[in-house]
Amino acid sequence: MQRTIALVQKKGSLENISLETEALPEPNENEVQIEVHSIGLNFADLFAIQGLYSATPQGAFIPGLEYSGVVISTGKKVKNVKKKDKIMGVTRFGGYSSHLNIDSRYVFKLPSKWNFDQG
What we know:
Layout: E1 2-8, E2 17-23, E3 31-39, H1 43-50, E4 66-74, E5 86-90, E6 99-103, E7 107-109
Antiparallel strand pairs: 1-2, 3-4, 3-6, 4-5, 5-7
Protein name: Alcohol dehydrogenase, catalytic domain, GroES-like protein
Keywords: Oxidoreductase
Pfam families: ADH_N
């Protein structure tokens, strides 16, 4: 599968974010693959992009700590969600993407009355 990512090549400015396309492998046995519908923007993302956050990854990185979307695939050992579930989740960067693979421990079913932006 191909996915679109918001990639920070060089820290220091929001102008340094570019949209790129890359391959996304199938999820491993403990992961879920998510089609991202909404992302959160918080101070840690902005500080990381500016190079001011101590937990910022070295080199190029994909910002984004929180997201919501739909499960499109699961690994064999995943029990907490299934394909087509609406979810919200957290990650240590990587949320600013069209799709992502994440350990199922960090994914939670979206409450039935919530929309993706609320998640």
